[in-house]
């Protein structure tokens, strides 16, 4: 994706608020082209962070720091929040998006570690390893209290079959377990290919001897495993949560263990962390680690490298690899789509300057080749162009859609394959209370962007620099009079396009001129006979 950049000469303040691998932030340390000022201060309270954040451009965190709306609002210069890890539930994404702050994470770097930790927790749970270890350390040689169960031939239920869930399943199969999984994106073919069974959440929890959750914490997954689900589970089921506290209802889990329905639970994560005084920890059937799923040398280095590289990439190119609050575009597609970003933005800018009333609705149609791409980032760029006139620097492609919707603009996107003779065509129509305006643009192979239609008139205009958009009656002499009047004002015409709906009807002139014009210049031209309207447009 493409978004705003800072110039390389600017000082870029990078604030690291959680402990990160020093090897992992090596890319930031050795960066010479950008003027990076890296500050590490961990363990701050929200108030302390707020005090320090005003001049920060990049905030880098793991899971400890809660990046709240208040922190984001106080960070007047913040452009990017980097999360060295997967889960972004500690970041107020809505606030970040509203403030135009891009959030990036490192989704791949800790998958392996989290999966290995899950298997370690499951095995420890099955064999009471932490409890037995604890007893022995306290001088008690107790063998009969710690008789465990085998994993072989047991069924593991996996809820959330993304990166980590899938890796857990591979390993569980290595333990000769049967795996049944639920994920809205898991297909029958993929399940077959992996040698697992696909089920609904209820089918998974009913069939399983061990249940492990690997979803993100979202409104839909909060308390996904609750008393209704415990009620339909097998007796003596064992539960593992190495994803996020809150996916399993902690009170219902406590009750299910106390009632003897659940034989044990292995927890790496809690609703409130640090969880040193949690009632679940008082139960002998519960084993726990303090959010260690990603705590390996390898994972910490890997996530910090990934997020550091994305910071550098963002300030050098305006693009990032792992955006969280923007649609992401695969690397191989980016080069093809990038030229359309500018075109889409220019079309938005054009319309913002011809429209005189608040926009109520925008219809964006993508035709031909461009319709093959994920067009959401293009729409965001178009909206950015549209809103810049009134929102200036505050609008970017992260928050353009949010801002548009907030001010009540209805956004409709359409895709069609027919591009009216062009290989690609973006047509944007805006509606206000009393006006409708349309502009269409294309990318001409080897020649760059062109505006090819304004309202109902066919034109061929390079969307760049200063334009004059004149509406007139199609009468002889109109073009000459405009040219003369502009010459009187020392305004040089570079190119001129004309179009009309019918002989003697309404016509337009699209002029590119060398310099901007004043209000007075516009009025001067507007007074001419048969001239209806004159607008200055800068692209
Ligand atoms: N304990 C730790 O240190 C770590 C914890 N995590 C947690 O693990 C989570 C999963 O990580 P990944 O596998 O890398 O993410 P992922 O994005 O690859 O997979 C998450 C999966 O959950 C699925 N999902 C979403 N809503 C669902 C629902 N209602 N029911 C069932 N499935 C649903 C998604 O379709 C997706 O396939 C992260 O969001 C993070 O919270 C991740 C790394 C380390
Ligand atoms: O930063 C950490 O160690 C936590 C990792 C984690 O929970 C995640 O990546 O979602």
TrEMBL record:
Residues 467-539 form the ACT domain. SUPFAM superfamilies: ACT-like, Formate/glycerate dehydrogenase catalytic domain-like, NAD(P)-binding Rossmann-fold domains, Serine metabolism enzymes domain. CDD domains: ACT_3PGDH-xct, PGDH_4. Signal peptide: none annotated. Keywords: Amino-acid biosynthesis, NAD, Oxidoreductase, Serine biosynthesis. NCBIfam families: PGDH. Catalyzes the reversible oxidation of 3-phospho-D-glycerate to 3-phosphonooxypyruvate, the first step of the phosphorylated L-serine biosynthesis pathway. Also catalyzes the reversible oxidation of 2-hydroxyglutarate to 2-oxoglutarate. This is D-3-phosphoglycerate dehydrogenase. It comes from Ureibacillus aquaedulcis. The gene is serA.
